[in-house]
């Protein structure tokens, strides 16, 4: 009798574990607030944090990045802190980021004007870029969808980089949650 009780219990446990694993969400959205860099955004998993130097118009600046992977897509927000809020510098940084994203896939750096919400309810003018093409020596196809915005002494790059575009509701969740302070 004891054997029969253990076997069904073990089978039920394995079945329950399989069911939970099969139902675990591919997108585990969480709101990230970065008071230092002045933004809030939803990311689909626990983000990794990185910081690296980038060259913009002959000047080295630091880009702070938070990124999370879900399915075959990387969702990230990068922030460049500039030495001033000079509109010419903002434009140079925006143009450099736009061109670099397009260059990654060998595409033309066309962007369209959009408005990005501020946390206080207003809006900030921004650029939206959607490009795709082969990347690097492997020629693997990537799709990049990005918002670029300058506010004060910060320039932001919210981007989704994927083999294939993620479901629209997932990219909507990401971009519609992005707000700058």
Rg result: 21 Å
Strand content: over 45%
Helix coverage percent: 25-40%
Q: What is the total tally of β strands?
A: 10
CATH homologous superfamily title: Mog1/PsbP, alpha/beta/alpha sandwich
Structural class: alpha+beta
The CATH architecture: 3-Layer(aba) Sandwich
CATH topology: Protein Transport Mog1p, Chain A
Q: Low-confidence parts, pLDDT < 50 over ≥5 residues? A: 1-24
Distance between the termini: 66 Å
CATH class: Alpha Beta
Arrangement of strands in the largest sheet: 3-4-5-9-8-7-6
**Biggest β-sheet: count, sense, barrel?**
7 strands, antiparallel
H and E string: HEEEEEHEEEEHE
Q: Any idea what the shape is?
A: globular
- Number of H- or I-type helical stretches: 3
Number of domains: 1
- Mean of residue pLDDT? 87
Structure description:
- The longest helix is centred in the N-terminal third of the chain and has 22 residues, at 2-23.
- The protein has one domain (27-180): 3-Layer(aba) Sandwich (Protein Transport Mog1p, Chain A).
- Helices cover 28% and strands 45% of the residues.
- With 181 residues, the chain is α+β, with helices and mostly antiparallel strands.
- The radius of gyration is 21 Å and the shape is globular.
- The termini are far apart.
- Strands 3-4-5-9-8-7-6 form a seven-stranded antiparallel β-sheet, with helices on both faces. A three-stranded antiparallel β-sheet has the order 1-2-10.
Sum this structure up briefly.
With 181 residues, the protein is an alpha+beta fold. The protein has helices at residues 2-23, 87-104, 168-177; strands spanning 30-34, 39-43, 48-56, 59-70, 73-81, 112-117, 123-135, 140-151, 154-162, 179-180. The protein has a 7-stranded antiparallel sheet, with helices on both faces. A 3-stranded antiparallel sheet has the order 1-2-10.
């Amino acid at each position: 009798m004891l054997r029969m009780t253990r076997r069904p219990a073990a089978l039920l446990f394995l079945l329950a574990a399989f069911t939970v694993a099969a139902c675990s969400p591919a997108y585990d959205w969480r709101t990230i607030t970065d008071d230092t860099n002045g933004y809030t955004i939803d990311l689909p998993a626990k983000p990794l944090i990185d910081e690296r130097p980038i060259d913009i118009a002959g000047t080295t600046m630091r880009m702070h990045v938070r990124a999370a992977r879900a399915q075959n897509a990387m969702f990230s927000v990068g922030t460049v802190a500039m030495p001033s809020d000079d509109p010419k510098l903002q434009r140079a940084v925006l143009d450099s980021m736009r061109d670099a994203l397009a260059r990654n896939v060998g595409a033309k750096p066309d962007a369209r004007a959009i408005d990005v919400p501020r946390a206080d309810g207003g809006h900030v003018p921004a650029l939206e870029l959607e490009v795709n093409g082969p990347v690097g020596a492997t020629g693997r196809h990537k799709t990049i969808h990005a918002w670029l915005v300058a506010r004060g002494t910060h320039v932001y790059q919210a981007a989704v980089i994927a083999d294939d575009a993620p479901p629209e509701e997932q990219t909507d969740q990401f971009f519609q949650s992005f707000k700058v302070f």
